[in-house]
Write a structure and sequence with these properties.
heterodimer; A: 184 residues; alpha/beta; fumarase; 5-stranded mixed β-barrel; 6 helices; globular; B: 280 residues; 4-stranded mixed sheet; 10 strands; 40% helix; binds iron/sulfur cluster
Chain lengths: 184, 280
């Protein structure tokens, strides 16, 4: 546990395979935001056999609905939202080629199986550390679903975005393992 | 009779919305710093250090500690000898929330209908609780409440036979299944007694107490300690990464109840335990 790894996006299979539960990572490059409402739309398009408004193959989705940016800031405070609300849509997105997700809280059995099957990774960012996380986001622009306000899909340029590997593609789960190690 | 202009209430509400979202209270800072010293898990300690660092950045740069700036829950304790002038009291509170969330660059997280789900765009309406108390002062408290921790709350109507042990098990099991979702370390508000609606309110009020201040009744203070100890033995730890500090504190509030009932409620607060008050 706890060697800091630097990652850049899009994620290669090689990078994904090298990640282990509990790794501290710093992510740089482009990541995309998406929450419940955007996920539902993406899922519906994939189910209908259509084209997504953004190419998410190899990419990371960050589950976040940022606060408004103050003048001079690229983005407002931007910590993760709870991931289970995306669980119903996630296996389909992983099948399509999404490689990473950043959120908080545990995932369903189906999602964890899909992470293994499609060689992907689930990271947690520190829930509530929104002002700190925003410092690693240097540019933000809405690229789809503007009508969803804070829930629109944004393209974020990040440098050293801090996250922790929860579910690696070998099927390990830090939420289960961490609790087991520290249970009295 | 003392006159209070509701336009002053608007200004205070706006200010408290902003301050409660930007500035971690002293009790929260203290709880965070003490936890850093106590936490045995490296991943848990690293998470706590980031949480503390985030509090510092938010305060220094006047930014929201968390992007989920919540529903504005507003408690008014109005002295019965005060007379409100200049408009509608509840409207003046909503207006304060509207201004505070706009001017403070806080997120608008309220939908106008629970099933049709269109954002109101200004974070109104607030959830308002008004109580009439003796005197001529007005105490205004704002407690913005995020979705992540609020969703991990519950009410249960027990048979009285469940007793002390039944309630302890209920709380510990609940915190265990909530896991990392409510952004631990949490503050766990527990209501016991009253009626179905009263007990939920007790759990909410329990979150307004300074973190770790025990219940004045030694019986309940002891129960708070026991529950906290059991929760922190679960191993969930900060952010669910594994560790000792799953909760900062457990606060119990009680009320007399029916001979046939034992209502219990849990309202969870995350490590961004926000509330600010002002007495007018
Ligand atoms: S639970 Fe609290 S800290 Fe976590 S995202 Fe919600 S408001 Fe923020």
């Amino acid at each position: 546990m706890s060697s800091i790894k630097r990652l850049s996006t899009p994620l290669t299979d090689e990078a994904v395979l090298s990640l282990k539960m509990g790794d501290d990572v710093l992510i740089s490059g482009v990541i995309y935001t998406g929450r419940d409402a955007a996920h539902k739309r993406l899922f519906d398009i994939l189910q209908a056999g259509g084209e997504l408004p953004v190419d998410l193959r190899g990419q990371i989705i960050y589950y976040v609905g940022p606060a408004p940016a103050k003048p001079g800031h690229a983005i407002g405070p931007a910590g993760p939202t709870t991931s289970y609300r995306m669980d119903a849509y996630t296996p389909r997105l992983l099948e399509y080629g999404l490689k990473g997700m950043i959120g908080k809280g545990n995932r369903s059995h189906e999602v964890i199986e899909a992470i293994k099957k499609y060689k992907a990774v689930y990271f947690a960012a520190i829930g509530g550390a929104a002002a700190l996380i925003a410092k690693s986001i240097h540019k933000a622009e809405v690229v789809a679903y503007d009508d969803l306000g804070p829930e629109a899909i944004r393209r974020l340029e990040v440098v050293d975005f801090p996250a922790v590997v929860i579910n690696d593609c070998m099927g390990n789960d830090l939420y289960v393992e961490g609790e087991r190690r520290f249970k009295l | 009779m003392r006159e209070i202009d509701v336009r002053d209430i608007t200004k205070i509400v706006a200010r408290l919305c902003i301050e409660s979202n930007y500035f971690a209270t002293d009790d929260l800072v203290k709880a965070t710093e003490e936890s850093i010293l106590k936490e045995e898990s490296p991943a848990g300690r690293a998470a706590l250090e980031k949480i503390r660092e985030n509090q510092k950045i938010a305060a220094a740069e006047e930014l929201a500690i968390c992007q989920d700036t919540g529903v504005a829950v507003v408690f008014i304790e109005a002295g019965q000898d005060a007379h409100f002038i200049g408009g509608d009291l509840e409207q003046s509170i909503h207006e304060g929330v509207r201004q505070g969330y706009r001017d403070g660059y806080l997120r608008k997280s309220v939908v106008e209908d629970p099933l049709r789900r269109k954002n109101t765009g200004d974070n109104t309406p607030a959830v308002i609780h008004i109580r009439i108390v003796p005197g001529d002062k007005v105490k205004i408290t704002i407690a913005p409440k995020g979705g992540g921790s609020e969703n991990m709350s519950t009410v249960k109507m027990f048979a009285p036979s469940a007793g002390r042990e039944g309630i302890i098990k209920f709380v510990v099991d609940w915190v265990k299944q909530a896991g990392a979702n409510p952004c631990p370390p949490t503050v766990v508000g527990v209501g016991i007694g009253g009626t179905f609606e009263k007990v939920a309110m007790l759990a909410k009020m329990a979150l307004l107490r300074p973190i770790g201040q025990p219940n004045p009744d030694p019986f309940y203070a002891d129960m708070e300690k026991e529950i906290l100890q059991k929760i922190n033995a679960l191993g969930i730890g900060p952010q669910g990464f594994g560790g000792r500090i799953t909760s900062f504190a457990v606060h119990i509030e009680t009320h007399p109840c029916h001979i046939a009932s034992l209502p219990a409620a849990i309202n969870m607060n995350c490590h961004v335990s926000r509330h600010q008050s002002f007495i007018l």
